[in-house]
């Protein structure tokens, strides 16, 4: 069988098909550290080749997984079956059209987020989604996970910033979804259904992205708080005020402790939580906007608000946040990094509970993330090679997820589900909804060949 | 059969079921002027009653149409079959919760848009969708059609401003879709799939709406242009600049002519197009924001930009626009009002083509609408009781729709499809997409009882 499918793929792809196990190996992992071995890797450069690949896989009942640059953290692009074909979209990386007057850009999915930003900036625009991995991650991947980043607090996620898609379904049909305009209500919204579906419904071959004008000025502030309770009050206060920040990031006390040395006394010693806040606007107005947001940030328990007045000071304010990831990796290279979301007002409750769980399970937990969206990156620092620690971390994670759901939150804000959170989905989504989602998938992908076993838990 | 279903409905609804033909008659129309006669009208007050109504209709294979206040313009709530049951949601009109810290409001679908705005305003917020009928139209209707209004140009449509829904599917399952947070990527996006589906997938019994902080100040401007070409250049220019207006409305030359007398010389005589522009922001900054947008509006062909400096002047600027609808109704009470959308840069091409069609078909056409979204309300003024005129109007509409699609536009921006545009949908959406949409509908509504024959054209 693997001979047949390989020949079918070769016929449309020629040299753009990898079958040597060593070549294939490098396409079988993502940033979850999970690894699988695909049978073949397709490297299409055209929509027609994608159609041919899907049809060949459909014909031969072969699992097909689309991937970009492998920056995902959930194993969504890791093959579970050694008969799988990976379709790597990184060669379909053209920017097809930038239409200033209609504020849109048409791209292929393999283009990096950064390339889009650079080209758009040349015309005075940006595309709001800005994951930390923007320099290397692809737009296709951003759409697959609905990946956002700090700017989502003001400008939204891919679902709010994508006008239309061209996709290939699991049986090789080509569909154009959505519109080229910012309004449209003809037929059902298949564009948003595709976004966040992790390659389980179709393979995106083109995307029409909505652009937003760049603001001429930005100001960065760091607000320090006694504890997360006072920081969360400030977040709610800021979000209820007319000046919506374009970033509203937080770090809890444990996160601050990780980098306290590197901050060389720049933080007050009793700082138990901090916010990094950015506002954007017209250059002539940015002082007042920063002043307003600074006022909103000064709730009870606020120890200090620092404002950067030049580029070097901006860099210094972000240093705290940027020093964190390397520090975490030094302590625990195989840490679990979750990206749960809770209503903003529940952030302090969650952080308190996480502190309890940390004690109960003996796992060090460090939290930071996108406060304005209630999106917490919960980092469990442990050594998975220690069986005891591994078991305690799993039990701890179970408590974390249960608490998130109890607080009316959701298991993932921007990383997606993939493999690693898949078995948790049924705790958030009821059995009827889950069955309906599977039924919808079957309409797109009748044989279930597209990224099987990901995103949704299997049902009976 | 009608006896059986009536008894089943009576069992759960008691007095909240209307069966007298005269009572039912008033629930069989909408603002399309179409009218049908339902067999019964259910007036539920609880989610459980909605479930009971759906189950009874499912059991008895009876068409079921949800409606709000009947302000829709497409016949989407008009029964096609005399055995239909109407479920009128207007008694489910509670505001369940307003959560300031999490910027959301939970409502039942029968609440009016205005009630939501009033309650939200008390806490310093608004819900962006603002159809002209806001005073009477329901949130459920806004969600069913993805109805927006002028503010969408800055703040988006219901799809960008709804976090989650509670729905009842066509076989009586209750599903909770979405989240209570502004990020979330667990499972497929059923919330947006529901929005704009015109009651064909499920009946909404509760909606969690995302609120936005009110801006303290607003400024209104009227910009006059020689023709639509120069006005459209200004629109593109404004939309590419950092200050995005919160309304960007236009009127073409014919629209201006309709109200020129009432303007008593306030417009320059050679004004061939005008824009009404609103900006919002901090009170201390609004002058500069208005100045910036005014600068962006001053493209070649701009004759004048007037800025209101007080409430009376704001009213005077809007008078032009508001005088239009009554004037149109006086001339042609049964006019066709379309709401096509084209890319902003194509507005002048469309307006020119409309002018040609007007001559070819002998039908007077007046255009106004939401320029920032490319959303044109194309009004065909004619007398449908005159068979010749009716035929010419239909032929004209055919040309209008073909042109819109040729320009990369869409048939509806905010009115939806209902019955009146249904047979046009297949020209915009390819057969594969249409089949997939029908297949998706079957997963929500296996017997096809929910608003049959609406929104999507039938397929073989």
From TrEMBL, chains A, B:
InterPro entries, sorted: FAD-bd_oxidored_4_C (IPR004113), FAD-bd_PCMH (IPR016166), FAD-bd_PCMH-like_sf (IPR036318), FAD-bd_PCMH_sub1 (IPR016167), FAD-bd_PCMH_sub2 (IPR016169), FAD-linked_Oxase-like_C (IPR016164), FAD-linked_OxidoTrans_Type4 (IPR051914), Oxid_FAD_bind_N (IPR006094)
One example GO MF annotation: FAD binding
Pfam family of the protein (one): FAD_binding_4
Presence of keyword Oxidoreductase: yes
Keyword Ribosomal protein: no
Cofactor entry: FAD
Keywords: FAD, Flavoprotein, Oxidoreductase
FAD-binding PCMH-type domain: residues covered: 34-214
Signal peptide range: none
Entry similarity comment: Belongs to the FAD-binding oxidoreductase/transferase type 4 family.
Name of the molecule in the record: D-lactate dehydrogenase
Lineage summary: Bacteria, Pseudomonadati, Pseudomonadota, Gammaproteobacteria, Chromatiales
């Amino acid at each position: 069988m693997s001979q047949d499918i390989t020949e079918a793929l070769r016929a449309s792809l020629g040299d753009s098909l990898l079958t040597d196990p060593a070549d294939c190996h490098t396409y079988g992992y993502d940033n979850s550290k999970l690894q699988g071995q695909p049978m073949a890797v397709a490297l299409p450069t055209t929509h027609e080749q994608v159609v041919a690949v899907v049809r060949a896989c459909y014909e031969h009942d072969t699992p097909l997984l689309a991937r970009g640059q492998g920056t995902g953290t959930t194993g969504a692009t890791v093959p579970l079956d050694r008969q799988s074909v990976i379709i790597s979209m990184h060669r379909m990386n053209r920017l097809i059209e930038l239409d200033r007057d209609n504020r849109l850009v048409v791209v292929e999915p393999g283009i990096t987020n950064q390339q889009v930003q650079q080209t758009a900036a040349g015309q005075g625009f940006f595309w709001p989604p800005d994951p930390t991995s923007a320099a290397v991650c692809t737009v296709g991947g951003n759409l697959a996970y609905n990946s956002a980043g700090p700017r989502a607090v003001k400008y939204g996620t891919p679902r709010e910033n994508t006008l239309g898609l061209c996709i290939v379904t699991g049986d090789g049909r080509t569909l154009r979804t959505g519109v080229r305009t910012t309004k449209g209500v003809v037929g059902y919204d298949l564009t948003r259904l595709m976004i966040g579906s992790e390659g389980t419904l179709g393979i995106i071959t083109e995307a029409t992205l909505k652009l937003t004008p760049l603001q001429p000025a930005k100001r960065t502030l760091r607000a320090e708080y006694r504890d997360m309770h006072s920081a969360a009050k400030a977040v709610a206060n800021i979000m209820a005020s007319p000046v919506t920040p374009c970033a509203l990031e937080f770090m809890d006390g444990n996160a601050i402790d990780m980098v306290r040395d590197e901050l060389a006394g720049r933080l007050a010693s009793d700082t138990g939580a901090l916010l990094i806040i950015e506002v954007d606007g017209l250059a002539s107005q940015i002082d007042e906007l920063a002043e307003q947001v600074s006022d909103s940030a000064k709730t009870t328990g606020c120890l200090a608000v620092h404002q950067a007045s030049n580029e070097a000071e901006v860099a210094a304010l972000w240093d705290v946040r940027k020093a964190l990831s390397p520090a975490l990796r030094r302590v625990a290279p195989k840490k679990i990094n979750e990206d749960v979301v809770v209503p903003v007002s529940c952030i302090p409750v969650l952080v308190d509970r996480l502190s309890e769980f940390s004690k109960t399970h003996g796992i060090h937990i460090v939290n930071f993330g996108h406060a304005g969206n209630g999106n917490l990156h919960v980092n469990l620092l442990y050594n998975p090679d220690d069986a005891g620690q591994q078991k305690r971390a799993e039990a701890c994670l179970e408590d974390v997820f249960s608490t998130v759901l109890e607080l009316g939150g959701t298991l993932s804000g921007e990383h997606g589900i993939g493999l690693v959170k898949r078995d948790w989905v049924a705790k958030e989504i009821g059995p009827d909804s889950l069955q309906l989602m599977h039924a919808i998938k079957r309409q797109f992908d009748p044989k279930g060949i597209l990224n099987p076993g990901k995103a949704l838990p299997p049902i009976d």
